[in-house]
Amino acid sequence: MIAIEGLTKRYGPTAVVDDVSLSVPAGAIAVVVGTSGSGKTTLMRMVNRLIEPTSGRVAIDGLDTASVPAHELRRRIGYAIQNHGLFPHRTVAENIATVPKLLGWSTARIATRVDELLGLFQLDAGRFARRYPHELSGGQQQRVGVARALAAEPAVLLMDEPFGALDPIIRAKAQDDLKAIQRRFGTTVMLVTHDMEEAIRLGDRIAVMDAGRLLQYAPPAEILAKPATAFVDALIGTGDRPFRLLSLVPVGDLVEPGAADGEPVAAACSARDALADLLWSGRPALPVAGDDGVLLGRVTRETLIRHAARPS
Amino acid sequence: MSAPAATAAAAAPPRLALRLDRLGVVIAGLAVYAAVAPFATFRANRIVAGEGQTILAALPTAEARLLLAVLAAAGLVALLRTPAPLRLAASVAALAALAVFAGRAGVFLTPADNAYARVSPASGFWIGLFAFALLAADAFTRLALPPFMRLAALALAAAGVALLLGSGAWDGLSILKEYSNRADVFWREATTHVALAGGSLAAAVAAGLPLGVLCHRVPKLRAAILNVLNMIQTVPSIALFGILIAPLGWIAANVPLAAAAGIRGIGAAPAFVALVLYSLLPVVANTVAGLAAVPREADDAARGMGMTDGQRLFSVELPLALPVILTGIRIVLVQNIGLATIAALIGGGGFGVFVFQGIGQTAMDLVLLGAVPTVALAFAAGVVLDALVEMAGGAREGRA
Questions:
Q1: Alpha-carbon distance B386 to B35, whole Å?
Q2: Which residue of chain A has the CA closest to B299?
Q3: Taking a C-beta distance cutoff of 8 angstroms, is the pair A95, A133 a contact?
């Protein structure tokens, strides 16, 4: 759990981050969204003290971050950044081993952990462990970057636009992978992005920042339904609002009894994708199947459209 | 190659591959000059003016023809567009022939039992040497050999020269006659020269690396330090020796044990200090440039993952800056091997001793005895450090 209280950073008279308080529950993903210059990156960098706050405090699992030396604090916190920041002169395995080595793990324990992480990120250890970062594709580099951040099993992971340099298809896959791995380890994640789509896709809670101030901190559905200010509203984009709302709901939640024609959609698929399918194929309803392929029922266009409306 | 280009190439009428190589035209021109210009100079003694002898006059007829044939063949290989390995082989053959037959000319031209006569290589030899060394260097560039192969080639070349000198093939030439008169002094000065150049480099690295790191970490100091070093670089070496006489003399006179440690107003101490001062700018400037070129993200990640400043410096910044720093060290080493010659002016020793003695006695052979080893040493140092720079940066940066 990350507890931020009254955190402020001033450079001269200007406050880059102005009295921000928020708390990220253990095992949750909090996404900080804002335009460039909103102070979102500064806020995140104050958590691991890459930037020292002017005032306010940060506590991680109850421990005041100011009470330990900065480098020791950072070794307990995962850190992944845009363009991966891998060390070009070290192999993939050496890169991933960075923090465990700093913490003085045994060679055997490090080797086991590196292999485990490579497997988790679908990188074959035999093929990739000894390669240098420049020999990998952009998506592979990014995965190694996140694997490196998770190497020492940190309870908290900070990510600064980790998927910013990836193309849309690889980015979607990387986001899904991150979510799966985060659920598996129960890591508390604070992720900074300018992409509202990414925030809604990943965030359990979204913090919207502008000009150093925290405008709203709420679950995605609430941000969409009740934007606190005109700025939040603009950031969501009025044209995409209903579809973003639908993207939060798995189609399995909207199943009703009955039959429909055609290929079934998976229950885990988002309602947004199901609606897109319906609109594109011109059908009134779709069959829905569970993980095991058993038909659960159907979902109709009317139901989906009703759920796309602003919640009252 | 794109499809249309491939078609065009295939459709072109077959031609004899008699196209000229641009650099080869220059090399062939120089080779022609080498063939007709004086190949060796004969002098009755070591300081009188000599008379030049062409290849035909300087060698027995059969040997002269053989040498001319080798030069002609190698010149032709250089002139035409030929594969790089062939060009390398031709240059090596021509260089070996020039070296061996220069020695033969020494034997042939020296009258029997005449200890005063001197035979030395003349302009034709030197121009030929230059032309085919150029061909060899060009062939090496085209071959793009990996660093360790270049080191092996350097070792082979050094072994070849050692063999030539050890076999006595050159004993008839004046430069080796000068050497044989001073063999023990030669090796003493050689040791001094290497110690001056290498020692000043080591001291400059020991002082310059921390200074460079300091400049990188404290941007306010950067301009000041680099400006001072720039200023030192512009002081002429003789002036710097003069400037150093007073403070070093004072230290020798007033600091206990300083004089016993060899510190004096003239001699090796001021030469050493001057070389160190000249070396600081390349070392510091390249350290700063190398550190500045470390990817910002790698540096940020190192900090974000909890490396201390020292860990970040030694395990991320310096390794990544190493190729650029080594380039600075290469500049310094080659520069110092050349500059150390000047040390002889103030009694500092080194190969410069022969150069300045030779100038004083108008004995060019003695000048060469100092100059040739200096050039060879600087060349070898350049090749070795180039290879090291490439090894340091090559494997991980994706450069071959």
A1: 34
A2: A85
A3: yes
The two counts, helices (H) then strands (E), for chain B are 17, 3
CB neighbours of B147 closer than 8 A, spacing ≥ 6? B386, B387, B388, B390, B391, B394
β-pair partners for A9:
A17
β-sheet bridge partners, residue A205: A30
Q: What is the pLDDT of residue B394?
A: 64
pLDDT value at position B340?
92
Q: Chain B partners of A72 at a C-beta cutoff of 8 Å?
A: 306
Closest Cβ–Cβ partner in A84, A86, A134 for B398: A134
How, if at all, do strands A188-193 and A29-33 pair?
parallel
Alpha helices (H) along chain A: 40-47, 70-75, 92-96, 98-102, 107-120, 125-128, 138-150, 168-185, 196-202, 220-225, 230-236, 241-247, 271-281, 301-307
Give the closest-approach CA distance of A62 to chain B in angstroms: 20
Look at residue B12 in the predicted model and tell me its pLDDT: 52
Helix axes B84-109, B147-166, angle to 10 degrees: 20
Q: Which stretches in chain B have pLDDT values below 70?
A: 1-18, 394-400
Q: What is the amino acid identity at position B118? A: R
Q: How many CA atoms lie within 13 A of B294 on its CB side?
A: 29
Which of chain A's residues have a Cβ under 8 Å away from the Cβ of B393?
none
Give the ipTM: 0.85
Contact of A81 with chain B, judged by CB distance below 8 Å, is answered with yes
Residue B181 contacts A where some CB pair is shorter than 8 Å: no
CA–chain centroid gap for A29, Å, is: 6
Q: Reduce the DSSP state of residue A13 to 3 states and report it.
A: coil
* Spatial CB neighbours of A38, under 8 Å, sequence gap ≥ 6: A209, A210, A211, A212
* CB contact at 8 A, B361 and B373: no
Are A124 and A116 a contacting pair, CB within 8 Å?
no
Q: What is the SS3 assignment for A17?
A: strand
Question: SS3 for B1?
Answer: coil
- Report the 10 Å Cβ neighbour count for B41: 23
User: What would the two tokens of residue A29 be?
Assistant: 């993903």
Q: pLDDT averaged over consecutive 10-residue blocks of chain A (312 residues)? A: 95 93 95 92 95 95 94 95 91 95 95 94 92 92 94 94 88 90 94 92 94 94 90 84 87 87 86 89 88 86 87 72
| Interchain proximity A99–B320, CB inside 8 Å | no
Phi, psi of B66 (to 5 degrees): -60, -45
The torsion region of residue A307 among left (phi > 0), alpha (psi -120 to 50) and beta comes to alpha
Residues of B in contact with A90 (CB under 8 A): 396
How far, in Å, CA of B71 to CA of B132, rounded? 9
Query: What Cα–Cα distance (Å) separates residue A7 from each residue in A20, A155, B133, B282?
Result: 5, 21, 69, 46
pTM of the model: 0.81
Q: Which of A98, A141, A190 to mutate to test the interface with B (most CBs of B within 10 A)?
A: A98
Q: Under 8 Å CB-to-CB from B281, ≥6 apart: which residues?
A: B226, B229, B230, B232, B233
CA–CA gap between residue A22 and residue A190 (Å, rounded): 11
Distance CA B268, CA B282 (A): 22
The tokens describing A39, both together, are: 């102070």
CA dist B88 and B94 (Å) reads 10
What does R_g of chain A's alpha carbons equal in angstroms?
Answer: 21
Q: Which of B82, B78, B77, B31 lies closest to B55, judged by CA?
A: B31
